[in-house]
Amino acid sequence: MTITDTQPERAVLGQRLLRKEDPALLTGEAKYTNDLAVPGALHLAVLRSPYASATINAVDVSAALAAPGVVAAYSGADLVDLWAGPMPCAWPVTADMKNPTHYPLAVSRANYAGDGVACVLSTSESAARDALDLISVDYTPHEAVIGLEDALSDRVVVHPDLGTNKSYTWDLKVEGTEGAVDAAFAAAAFTTKERFIQQRLIPAAMEPRAVLAMPQPFGGDMTLYSATQVPHILKVMTALTLGIPEHQMRVVAPSVGGGFGSKLNVYAEELLCVALARKHGKPVRWNEERAEASMSTIQGRGQIQDIELAADADGKLTAMRVRLIGDMGAYLQLVTPGVPLLGAFLYAGVYDLPQAYDFSCTSVFTNMTPTDAYRGAGRPEATYAIERSMDSLAAKIGIDPLELRRRNFIPTESYPYTAFTGLVYDSADHDAAASKAAEMIGYDAFRQRQATQNVPGATKRIGIGVSTYFEMCGLAPSRVLASLNYGAGGWEAATVRVLPTNKIQVVTGTAPHGQGHETAWSMIVAEKLGVSPDDVDVLHSDTAIAPLGLDTYGSRSLPVGGVAIALACDKVIDKARQIAAHQLEASPDDLEFSGGVFRVAGSPDKETPLAAIAFAAFTAHDLPDGMEPNLEAHTTYDPPNFSWPFGTHMCAVEVDTETGEVDVLQYVAVDDCGVQVNPLIVDGQVHGGVVQGLAQALYEEVVYDSDGNLKNSTLAEYLVPAASDVPPITTGHTVTPSPTNQLGVKGIGEAGTIGAAPAVINAVVDALSGLGVHDVPMPASPLNVWNAIQAAQGGSQ
Amino acid sequence: VIPAAFDYVRAGSAEEAISLIGEHGDEAKFLAGGHSLLPLMKLRLAQPSVLVDIGRITDLSYIRDAGDHIAIGALTRHMDVENSELLAQHAPLLTHATSHVGDPQVRHRGTIGGSIAHADPASDLPATTLALGATYVAQGPNGTREIAAADFYEGFLTSTLAADEMLTEIRVPKMQGAGWGFQKFNRRAQDWAIVGVAAWRRNGESGVALVNMGSIPVLATSVSAALAGGASIEEAAEQAAADAEPQADLNASVEYRTHLAKVLVRRALEAASS
Predict the structure, then answer these.
(1) Per residue in B109-154, pLDDT tens?
(2) How far apart are CA A350 and CA A746, in angstroms?
(3) A291 touches chain B (CB under 8 A)
(4) CB-based contact, A717 to chain B, within 8 Å
(5) DSSP string, A771-787
(6) Which residue numbers of B have CB closer than 8 Å to A's CBs?
(7) What is the pLDDT of residue A795?
(8) Beta-carbon pairs below 8 A across chains A and B
(9) Is the ipTM of this complex over 0.90?
(10) Which end of chain A is more exposed for a tag (fewer CB within 10 A), N or C?
(11) What's the pLDDT score for residue A1?
(12) Predicted TM-score of the model (pTM)
């Protein structure tokens, strides 16, 4: 394994090419679902429950039906016959997991504020919206349950038919080590016990959801356009839920304006549009309003984390105990119950923890919007808990937090490293990443400055926070997913097609929604086949064009989908080699292929370019006996392991102790995602990820009142940071090529989010440690910081 | 994001606007820059049945030297106030405060009169003009009248403007030689203030007004009285919330808001005294 600061020499990979997607996106040429002009489409609007918990006694749509433009209006009860099955949850994490029946419109009981209870079809969007005000619903409101521990007590039960709010308990313990954790804690020189709250977050993709269902004029086929990041999964699930033969369903994701996991789902409005388009024989479309998105699209995070560490006298970790309560919200969406499990393997972070680990997660229903995967999905939560706890441990021992981490890093020479969980971490050098970050931010100099600035009475106090992380991404080896009861595999499909004029079509099963796959996949093909990236067209996100795929989430597209493309290129080269050998009258084994040209080894004048082979394969005039015409290859790639990006983030802050305001002075992110296909895109992913992590740390928080009313549904109240609120981010990289794939690549989509929140909060707590502050809840808003200071000062008097 | 249906009429002059609003009664609203009203309409929190667009009455967009004060037409956009050399010379507190309104997009559309007539206690300009002792001019069917800023604000989003009156001019006294300070505390650059302070001092006089410290912009007369009585800035700032009735919201408790007002008044006065 080679660790360097620089990329391996490649022809195309590693160049900072501008994204080919961007001209259309930046000039408004790109077509989003809402841009598709479809004459005669009916507009759907959904009436949502104003109550977090209520029995639906009666729904009267008669006044709405009489309104101008209204074609139909339905209650949930009116539509029950349209569903072949309830809304899907693809991740039954335990055999006894409780999963409430969930239909696109609630039939007899609304279970969160925003739960759909009726709908209108109208000839215009505004008429549909107006008609909602004319629907009369007779509700009997019930007490709502919002707090997770309250939910766990079953004092109020969300779904009376289930009899309990507990959905499941899932444990992760190391077999054969019973008693090891208790023994280690009993023998520990130092222990910490912390509780952290992962507040709920609104994903807030720039494009809200939008859906258009188009019945084809004959034959019964249905095309569903949706702002989704999972067209392939959506196709299967729509077919199953609506009883439509799968081969008659086509799903297209046009340009999609971000998802962050929130569009990794099967939503009520998608199913409603398809069902009503079938029923009425007309296109049906729906556009989500922003405030509607806050309650009807999934939310992220939502956990109470209790974490205990045990360490020996040198600060070496000896055991860990983790107890989670997961907030499922009112229903289980596509992968809701699995999110905490994705973090379960990462609570030990990048540390060499012995086999003394005890994890248990109990997840509960609450009367709030369902949660589900949001950038990082379980892994930012885990990283936050361990990285905050490491700072607590360092404070207890009285050593520098960076030094404590160094004492516990998994040693570089032990890679590949089999963790206590049985997972194999393929490659890493944590000390290299940490040292680089420390050098970039000037860690030692900052500590000196801090000692002079944070004197008694100082009202501007500075702090520095460290966060080291491992990311289990690149979902995923199908057999590992099977062991977690996940309802699908983790492979990815690719087709590489060399057209007669040596232009290349790539068909990918990934579904980009801002990631730049068209550019990155073109670069991989260009590297492999010796063509220009401009000569490559990437086809995606339409199940009629790319019928096989498992879509984009979990930082999987490059380490699974991108590698699949490289493998398909290899197959193309193999076939081209046979043709070239035939034409050059040489043995295939004697041919070298580089820069798009086959050459006979030792005979420099005997060569033929891929372009000539492509045309020969097309004309088929002179191919080897028995060879099929044309030059294309298909691959389905199931990765042998997850990919394991890692890194160190550091953040320096100044806190105004009079106002509680946190000013981020400096942010340094050193990420190792193996070989970088396009460092410009990598930087973009890190920037965006860091901002989303920083947003959780400082700005964002979903607020419900005790009755279950969402208090900040608009972007004036829900504080997504704007460009002017984000500090300069300095990116650095180490390059540890992944040994598990030929490109040496690892995922990078979620790394920034995973690293950022603990770095920021560690810095804030570090700044305030002289005032007796031990923790600040997220978000570290001025109010929360000021309250933490008041509490600490009050406590010390 | 889809407002309820409404009718739209465009006025070519102040007189026409007042006549149109009189014709359509209580359900009509003036539309100036639209940056306060339209968001409320999109959320259906406001559902006027008629919008009287006054945005093209160009003769209400001006900044003039009127002797002892600067006269600002109500339809002058924030960006023009922000960049006015005349105002920078005679009322730098106003140009500075205006540069903190929303973001550049908002400042290119929104108007000073629209912001003041909307009477949002969380907006910067009502409190700033209140601190400066501005006078507002309103035109109605029976002519014009002057309203002191201190008499203008009645309650949350309500003012003493009659339904058929239109704000036409803001008169800001010239403040030669006054020191000033403006503090806007918010979480994101484009947000409303959690607490804001506009303050000026000249010789023994001062004016201090608070943003978002109650249902109306608040003139902190207790602070000015303390200063006039010889109190130090620190002592006077302790009176910051004495005239206010702050509310709690997602960003601040009453206790925190009160504390912030003291800190920010102190900082604003320090700036005004330096």
Answers:
(1) 999 999 999 999 999 999 999 999 999 999 999 999 999 999 999 9
(2) 16
(3) yes
(4) yes
(5) GT----PSS--HHHHHH
(6) 1-2, 4-5, 39, 43, 103, 185, 187-191, 194, 250-253, 256, 259-260, 263-264
(7) 54
(8) 56
(9) yes
(10) C
(11) 43
(12) 0.96
